[in-house]
Design a protein that fits this description.
Radius of gyration: 20 Å
InterPro entries: RecX_HTH_1st, RecX_HTH_2nd, RecX_HTH_3rd, Regulatory_RecX, WH-like_DNA-bd_sf
Domain RecX first three-helical: 14-50
Number of helices: 9
Keywords: Cytoplasm
Number of domains: 3
Strand content: under 5%
CATH architecture of the largest domain: Orthogonal Bundle
Pfam family, one: RecX_HTH1
Organism: Halomonas casei
Order of helices and strands: HHHHHHHHH
């Protein structure tokens, strides 16, 4: 979207420009607009209007985010943590997870196994190598049971 100059841009123009590229949570958009020195009241008014018009939706953002992170091989713990950092409330976060996991039939144990298999060819011969694989999966957001399952399958 082209406009005369950055100084003439309204919060709406900037927000729509951002949303044209990818989904954003309300909190992320508010942060970005605040960096452009817009008044908090103008930001809230703009975001309320965008939500009413269907241009911005935390529910849509959360579902899209969960899907993209699953495709990257990330686990529940990490995905939920990142959504919280992006300002998504617990209710929206839970609804997005339930929806995506049901629609995509996500098996977190198999996802952990596949993620580990893409990176490593064995479960590790030494305790040090095994710990490295455990840390890898833990950093990806998988829980202890999922990690144990993934290691037992290699």
């Amino acid at each position: 979207m082209a406009f005369a100059s950055q100084r003439d841009a309204t919060p709406r123009v900037i927000a729509i420009g951002l949303l044209a590229r990818r989904e954003y949570s309300r909190a992320e958009l508010a942060q970005r607009l605040a960096k452009k020195s817009f008044e908090p009241s103008a930001i809230d008014e703009c975001l309320d209007t965008l939500i009413e018009q269907g241009f911005q939706s935390d529910e849509r953002f959360a579902a899209s985010f969960v899907r993209s992170r699953i495709l990257r091989g990330q686990g529940v713990i990490r995905i939920k943590g990142e959504l919280r950092q992006r300002g998504v409330d617990q209710e929206t976060l839970s609804a997005a997870f339930e929806s995506v996991v049901a629609n995509e039939q996500v098996d977190w144990f198999e996802l952990a196994r596949e993620t580990l298999a893409r990176r490593f060819t064995s479960a590790g011969e030494t305790p040090k190598e095994r710990a490295r694989r455990e840390r890898f999966l833990a950093s990806r957001g998988f829980d202890f049971e999922q990690i144990r399952y993934a290691l037992s399958c290699l």
